[in-house]
Amino acid sequence: MTPEKRLIELEQENILLKQQLKQRDELIVQLQQRLEALEKRMSKDNHNSHLPPSSDRFVRQPKSLRAKSDKKTGARRDTQERPCLRDRLWWGIVTST
Predict the structure, then answer these.
(1) Rounded (5°) CA angle 51-56-62
(2) CB of 89 within 8 A of CB of 73?
(3) Segment holding 33, helix H or strand E
(4) Pick from 59, 35, 55, 38: which is nearest to 46 by CA?
(5) What phi, psi does 75 have (nearest 5°)?
């Protein structure tokens, strides 16, 4: 390879590398702007924004620490069938001893 061809090849490679570097610099600037915007949004909560506490963004609601029960929800079955002892005493169904 002659020195002239090598020089031309290196100049073309140099131009290509400069273009890539410029694109990456532009991408870095865009990402920095995006990061600043996100950090600004994350720093706000109900104390320093116009939003009420119930709508604080980016805060995960705590999950209940209670374990799930196998029991059905609602009132006990026998309470629907017969009144409680106090009511039975009041109505005179049961006499107190």
Answers:
(1) 155
(2) no
(3) helix 3-42
(4) 55
(5) -75, 160
